[in-house]
Write a structure and sequence with these properties.
Helix content of chain A: 40-55%
Shape of chain A: globular
Low-confidence stretches of chain A: none
Order of helices and strands of chain A: HHHEEHEHEHEHEH
Largest sheet of chain A: 4 strands, parallel
Oligomer: homotetramer
Radius of gyration of chain A: 21 Å
Strand content of chain A: 5-15%
CATH topology of the largest domain in chain A: Dna Topoisomerase Vi A Subunit, Chain: A, domain 2
Largest interface: A-B, 45 and 45 residues
Number of domains of chain A: 2
Chain lengths: 199, 199, 199, 199
């Protein structure tokens, strides 16, 4: 196949990239000097080289010295008694940037579509259960931090069910008015939560 | 002045209506039959005729039999111990449509711009204080239901201050994740509230 | 019916106005003083009083001295040999604002939906034919100025057919690249016209 | 530097890609299997290998058998007497997809910012002049096919000036109403062109 079309097809698989933008990426690369394309090619080839998947939190992390734990997972100053379960690395990153949570994390690697018959294929279920089993004496609270949409709610429910036997407190992030919410347009679920959680 | 331009200018004062839309409204009316324009003209002229401003809640309400209290304010089944303060009629209406709140209301009639030097010009302060003074034996909780934006926050702060001497519990609607919030993009304030209000 | 709901329903008929905005208009009027609502009510009631429909061009025009012709139709300096047919008053107004056309107009009052079986119900067909019959010795060119969309194209075709027997030159506005057109995204029709009309 | 951040920075250079999307691309690649990242890395490294820049038209083209001319430039059935000058490969591609132009092309490689003092740095001026010099006996018309925006207009003017001595007809794509233009909102330039180009 034509190398322009081939590369274009590979770019089309990128999240949020359509046919047209994929083509623009290719023409962009054709116009760039070889130094840039070589750098990019190398960076992609080696992206996994110094990146590991933390064996506890399943966060991707960069390391040159090896090791199986991410900086957060191995940080003795992080509170072992709280475990926050997030869907993906970028959720974790956004939360870390805020600097307001001092516990540990577990990255599920996905969320469960509504009505799915094989929920465990979408998330790291075995790895999660293994981690909690191992740390169950330390963990006092598991915070389920899912986005507020049908798939997120479905994942919440599933997690509650598979975690209920651990005898650990399970919490979910509070619902209510978020930045920018206008009362005139707020939906019933949001208002009800906001009213119940009034303080 | 040309009557097309005159009416156009009056429509331009409507909320969210620009020059072009105002003109379209006028041409729309020119093409409509006289029955419709007569109806509209009468309805506007008489809009206040059977509409009263509730002397307790300051909600506009429709009545043919007179009376000074809105149906909600005069409803003996509504809980007198809770008073929710909202900015405007459409907020109240949205909340009523949900059917989840059974207390009373007070409509402020506006919100206070940040850095305003004359906050009481933007809201019905005297009327609010008079109502609370009169009902202070019944009211056990005042819920401040403001939108989550700088002007709303500013109004919240001002209300807390002017209400603090009543020795009545003041609460605000809870903050947290609202419908549609994606953790990857949530802001710090929202996440912090959601984390603190986890359950 | 409740007068708030009644006025709200009348506003919902306005072009581009939904349920929510209609309600906002009503609350806006309830908060305005009686001077403004009286003015508005009068302006609507009298919108047609000094407005006439030009008996030649069918443009609405304002007049205090009576007369059956719009300023443009009765202006001896406008070129009688060109007649531009437009769909609606706001098209005419936009073109006049540019100050580049010195001929006369006819306002069709609408456009013909594709596949319509009663095209003459949507436009002032009889009035148009009558005008051209009357002025056929003066008119040297009829310019069909329709928007470029299926309904506009359909109207064009219909007009060409009913006007072909007059032995007057019929032209349509040229097609090509318009302000903002990017070649990368231009459609085939536009490019073909632009190529054919290159100069 | 951390390899996640490094790759992220390289992606940020892509047209239309911001910080956040660049990060998503990286996490996307981290989750993909090595087969895909290897393919992508190779495709980027080799993007220029079988791609050549046509020495006449300066279009990028794919070839396994070598050769210095693109399929269009070397196609004996394409009309040598017309040369269309476009800004970039994707413009050419969009036009070819329509199948309505049978002449040759020249890809400028850019357009000239308004007020630029070094216009020839933004386009392949020397290469263009060389091509026209070489083909001046065959070329009967040069079509300047620029987008309709200030930068495109500026490029048009500059090209007209540097090409005026060749004694070849220079044309530009016609202006007028393009698909979707509504007369009510059309701008003066577009309407004037449409009126002048009426037919």
């Amino acid at each position: 196949m034509n190398s322009i079309d081939k590369l274009s097809e590979l770019f089309e698989k990128f999240p949020g990239v359509g046919k047209r933008q994929a083509k623009r990426f290719v023409y962009f690369l054709l116009r760039k000097n070889s130094g840039y394309t070589k750098d990019l090619s190398d960076a992609i080839l080696n992206i996994k080289k110094n990146i590991r998947l933390c064996e506890e939190s399943f966060q991707f992390f960069y390391t040159e010295r090896g090791g199986n734990l991410s900086p957060i997972a191995s940080n003795p100053n992080r509170d072992d008694s709280k475990l926050m379960i997030v869907e993906k690395d970028s959720d974790l990153e956004n939360i870390e940037k805020m600097g307001v949570y001092d516990g540990k994390y577990f990255v599920l690697g996905g969320s469960i579509p509504v009505l799915s018959k094989t929920p465990n294929e979408f998330i790291r279920e075995t790895e999660l259960l293994r981690l909690i089993e191992k740390k169950k004496d330390k963990i006092k609270e598991i915070v389920l931090a899912m986005s507020v949409n049908p798939q997120g709610e479905n994942t919440l429910e599933y997690l509650r069910k598979i975690l209920e036997n651990f005898n650990i407190k399970i919490s979910i992030l509070g619902r209510g008015l978020s930045t920018g919410t206008e009362l005139e347009y707020s939906d019933k679920d949001t208002f009800m939560s906001a009213f119940e959680n009034r303080r």
